[in-house]
Amino acid sequence: MTQAQPYEGGCTCRQVRYRMTSKPMFVHCCHCRWCQRETGTAFALNAMIEADRVALLSGEPEIINTPSNSGKGQMIARCPKCRIAVWSNYGGMGDKVRFVRVGTLDEPDRMPPDIHIFTMSKQPWVILPPDKPAMHEYYDTKKMWPEESLARHRAILGR
Ligand SMILES: [Zn+2]
Ligand SMILES: [Zn+2]
């Protein structure tokens, strides 16, 4: 399979298809209980990217307001037919940052995590790579993100 450039993905029934028009700002591997429950597995893999860098190619995701750890809620975009979640917006980050579910990309291998978070509830059999930061809970964006990503983040916040 050729390397699709840029990054495309979608749901299982292929009604919803999208394209990330650049690489993400940062990729989270979240081991919290909420992500474990939501995915039904050990962690969630989310690529954080500006909402306007996610182009919808087909379909129209249905937005489901879902309770979140922060209490501010999470708007999960799901295919209206097969109900696969393709991305989320978290209350704290607003609707300008999308958390694209890396597993819905055609080539998820191209987007490994930059950081592991909430390792306090990590499944004990998940062995983390020694070369990536791992945080007990959350972290300070300013300390962990590359300057290029921080600049992109400031730009969408209008600062
Ligand atoms: Zn679908
Ligand atoms: Zn989580």
Summarize the structure.
The chain is an alpha+beta fold.
Principal-axes geometry comes out as globular
Rg from Cα: 15 Å
- Taken in chain order, the helices and strands follow as EEEHEEEEEEEHH
Number of DSSP-assigned strands? 10
Low-confidence stretches: none
Summing up helix and strand content along with how strands pair, one would put the structural category as: alpha+beta
Largest sheet: 7 strands, mixed
Q: Quick check: average pLDDT?
A: 94
Number of helices: 3
Strand order of the largest sheet: 6-7-8-9-4-3-10
Q: How far is the N terminus from the C terminus?
A: 41 Å
Q: Name the beta content range.
A: 25-35%
Considering DSSP H and I runs of 4 or more, what fraction of the residues is helical?
10-25%
Ions, cofactors and other bound molecules: zinc ion
Provide the descriptors you would attach to this structure in a database record.
alpha+beta, globular, 3 helices, seven-stranded mixed beta sheet, 10 strands, 159 residues, 14% helix, three-stranded antiparallel beta sheet, binds zinc ion
Care to describe what's here?
There is one protein chain. By secondary structure, the chain is α+β, with helices and mostly antiparallel strands. The protein has three helices and ten strands; from the N terminus they run E-E-E-H-E-E-E-E-E-E-E-H-H. It has helices at about 35-40, 140-145, 145-155, and strands at about 5-10, 15-20, 25-30, 45-50, 55-60, 60-65, 75-80, 85-90, 95-100, 115. The protein has a seven-stranded mixed β-sheet. The chain has a three-stranded antiparallel β-sheet with strand order 1-2-5, with no helix packed on it. Strand 6 (about 60-65) and strand 7 (about 75-80) form a beta hairpin. The structure holds zinc ion (2 copies). One zinc ion (ZN) binds near residues 13, 15, 16, 79 and 82.
